[in-house]
Here is the input.
Amino acid sequence: MHAYRSHTCADLNKSNIGDTVRLSGWVHRVRDHGGILFIDLRDHYGITQVLADEDSPAFKALENVRSEWCIRIDGEVKARDASLINDKIPTGEIEIFIRDMEVLGAADELPLMVFGDQEYPEETRLKYRFLDLRREKLQNNMKLRSDVVTSMRKRMWDMDFREYQTPIITASSPEGARDFLVPSRLHPGKFYALPQAPQQFKQLMMVAGFDKYFQIAPCFRDEDPRADRSPTDFYQLDLEMSFATQQDVFDTIQPVLKGVFEEFGGDRSVDQDWPLISYADSALWYGSDKPDLRNPIKMQIVSEHFAGGGFGIFAKLLEQEGTEIRAIPAPKGGSRKFCDRMNKFAQGEGLPGMGYIFWRDLGEGLEAAGPLAKNIGPERSEAIRQQLGLELGDAAFFLGGKPKAFESVAGRARDTIGKELKLTDETRFAFAWIVDFPIFQRDEETGKLDFDHNPFSMPQGGMEALNGDPLAVRGYQYDLACNGYELLSGAIRNHKPEIMFKAFELAGYGEDEVRSRFGGMVNAFQYGAPPHGGCAAGIDRIVMLLADEANIREVIMFPMNQRAEDQMMNAPSNATNEQLRDLHLRIIPQE
Here is the structure.
C-alpha cells in the first residue's frame, strides 16, 4: 500500500464496502459520542467520515487529535446506517472504522477556524493565509481560477495563437501607474523595472513577424489598493495580432471570454449581444466608462428645461460655459421616502443634496411633486417627464455643473438607484465594448494639452486627424465592461513613427524625448512595422465576477493587504547593510 493513501477523501463509495484503505488529510471536525470518536477527514478533494470505538487499537491516540492535525489512517470501509446517510457529499453512504493512525503533522492552537463560517479580520486571514486557504470557499475559488486559466489557454491555442514569455526585468516605462524599480548591482546607480504590462515587448514581437501572440502575463504596478484591484501585481490574458483591425480583435477575444463565462458562470446567463458604446455616450448615459448594463437606467441631458427657469441654482449654473443638467430616471422610485434616501446618498458623496421630482396622483390626475417641481412649475416638469418616459409612481434625480465634475457621482447614484429599486438584473453577465476614446485633453488650469488616454493608440484618421482640432481626435482604443467592471483594455497601435512623433509633439513632448523614453519601440518601427493591435483581459477580475466575490483578494492565492504588505512573509522588509553596499544604496531616514 502507498505510504500515505490508497484513495483520496472523495473517492470511496458503497462499492468499496469491506475494503481496507488508507487515507491522509486534515481533521476537519471531531465529535465525541461517549466511547465512539467520529472524525471528518478532509483533503483537497473532499471529506470522509472515519470513526473508532474503544476496541480500536488507535482509539487512545485518536483522543489526542484536534482540529487541523494532519493524520494518516488505515481502516475498513463500512456502510452507514440508512438513517445516517449524508447525500450532500460523495462519500456519504460509507464510513471507515479506523484500525491504525499516524500523526503526520500536529497543529498548535488555531488563530482561525477552518470548519464553519466564522468571520475573521482581514489582517488575521492574510497573516495565516495558509489556514484561510484550507476553507472550502477559498479552495473552490482557487480551483475555479486554475480552471478559468486552463480554459483561456485552450481557447487561444484553438485559434492558432501561440504562447510566448516576455521579460520580467526590463526598463522603466511610464504607462499610467508607478513602476516597481529594481536596483542594479552590476550598474551602480541604475535601475531596472518590473513590467507594468508586456506592452512594448508584444508590439516588438509583431515587428519581428510572430503574427499571433498570447500570454498569461504577470504585471506589476505600484498602485493604491481597491476592492477590485491588487496594489502590487496581477495577471492578465495578454494578446496581440498583426494585420488586424479593431473588429478583428473583438472577433478574436469575444468568443474566448463569452465561452469562459458560459462555462463557469453557473446559473447566470451571458448576454449574446455586446453593444459598441462610444466613450462620450457611456459617460453621458451611465456616468462611467465601465457601465453596468444589467441596470436599464439611462441618464439624459435636460438643460433646456432649467435654462432661465425658476430654480435659481441650475439656471445660474447654465450661464457658465460648458455646464449642463442631467437627469437620472428612477422608475417606481416616486416616494418622498426614497427621494430623501437618495438625497442622503448625495450628501454622503460630498454634495449638498440632489434635486428630485416625483410623480403622484392626488385624485386630480398626475402631479409633479418635490422642491424642484415647485420651482420650475408644472409645464417644465411635464416636459421633463415626457422626455424621460416616466409615469405615475416614478421619479427623476438631477445633477448639474461641468460634466467631468459630477459624472462619477451621477454614475454611482444610477447604480444605487438600480439596486435599491431592484431594477438591476443580478442573474446575468452584461457586456459592452466602450470605443472612441479621446486621445487628448486640455488642463483647465494651465490650458496645456496632454494625453487623456493611451498615447500609443492609432488616432482615427491618422496624421490628417492630428493636423485638425486635437480635442476632436479619437483613438482606436477600446475597453470591455461587464457588470460595472472594466475587464479588458486594448487598442490598435500607432505603428508609424511620424504619426507617433506628431501625437507626442501636440502633448508637449519633443522627438528626442520620445526616442529617449521609447527608443526600442521607435527604432523597431523604422524597419517595416506591420499594423497591429491587441488587448489584455484581467484574470483576477474575471474570476472575481465568476466567483461572485466583491473583493479581488478572495480569488488571489496570496494577496497583499490594503497597505500593500504581505504579513505572512513580512514584505516589504528591511535590506541588510551588506545588500545595500552591494547595490551602492543608502537609506535616508524620514524626518
